[in-house]
Amino acid sequence: MHVVEYRERFETGRPVTVHFVRGTRASPMPAPGGPDHYQQRLEPAGRYMVHNPNPGALPPGWEKGVVRFESPLVLPLNTVPGGPIYDEHSWKVALQAEFGGKTGRALSLAILRAGYDAVVTVALGQGGRPIDTREIVDLTGLHGRRMTARDIIQGGRRGR
């Protein structure tokens, strides 16, 4: 699967430069035992962002920047086009299942060890055709400094 957005091609394992915007304030976690509408209890740890090379003026609490991923993992936001984003077919459920039920930091480290330095989600249109990117998770900052998936695999596994 791949999608081209703002002249950047997003494809698993293919290097890509992302001009991003992101909120700098952490989203509140759901209350213990309460509903988890956005599946935050399942999601990987990392720096969440969206691809937007021309964001214009940003409100307080938002930042823009550029990051290069050497080997992103690109997957559908949800495998059922037109359905709800966060259900049993979401990217968060798929990643948790693929990586042995891990969540949070443990899930992110497992994804890095598998050779990926980011997760890029892609919305699907009619017939399952990729439309555009949605959530992007930068996994490289989990060690207090930018690392690539190659660094993790080759022994730079500080802070496990």
Q: Which key terms come to mind for this protein?
A:
single chain, 3 helices, two-stranded antiparallel ribbon, 160 residues
Could you explain how this protein is built, in words?
By secondary structure, this protein is an alpha+beta fold. The chain has one domain (about 1-25, about 40-155). The chain contains 3 helices and 8 strands; from the N terminus they run E-E-E-E-E-E-H-H-E-E-H. The strands form 2 sheets. It has a 6-stranded mixed sheet with strand order 5-3-4-8-7-6, with no helix packed on it. A two-stranded antiparallel ribbon has the order 1-2. A hairpin with a 2-residue loop joins strand 1 (about 1-5) and strand 2 (about 10). The radius of gyration is 15 Å and the shape is globular. It starts with a strand and ends in a 7-residue tail after the last helix.
Strand order of the largest sheet: 5-3-4-8-7-6
Distance between the termini: 31 Å
Q: What does the radius of gyration come to?
A: 15 Å
Helix content: 10-25%
Helix-strand topology string: EEEEEEHHEEH
Summarize it:
This protein is an alpha+beta fold and 160 residues long. The chain has 3 helices and 8 strands, in the order E-E-E-E-E-E-H-H-E-E-H. 14% of the residues lie in helices and 31% in strands.
Topology (elements, then pairings):
Elements lengths: L1 E4 L2 E4 L4 E8 L23 E5 L10 E8 L2 E5 L14 H8 L5 H10 L4 E7 L5 E9 L10 H5 L7
